[in-house]
Write the structure tokens for this entry.
Amino acid sequence: MKQRSFDYDEEILTQINARIKKGAAEPGEQAQEDINEVIKRTSGAIIEVNKELGSGFPDKVYENALILELRKQGLRGRNHVPVKVKYKGVGVGEYFADVIVEDQIVIDIMTVEAIQKSHEVELINILKATNYKIGLIVNFANQKAEIRRIVV
């Protein structure tokens, strides 16, 4: 039987080992600690926007303020992002995400009396159809912002 010889790039091996130590099994996976830190910092940015602006503004005002605060927190946030929706692997349309943080978290911003089950179902379906795994529903309508975390 013929033996195979493998040449490994030292830098790639170092990166793989670092990911494994952080808890990611595959080279392309993010460590769970990393996403939890992003969620924590994103929540802090949401709370800061809520403290500064309070309630009573249209969704777009909170969206713009959140983008500024995310940047201040050192996070990459993009707003009104077109995301392709697929049905059985075929593109069937686009969804425009209010905010996407670090290309990992979809944020749906609203100013409604209360977050309803239908809002959660909508975000779950969006996450499933777009390959994102984590979403936050943020309601700025009340004195204290309401944040719901959705994971699929």
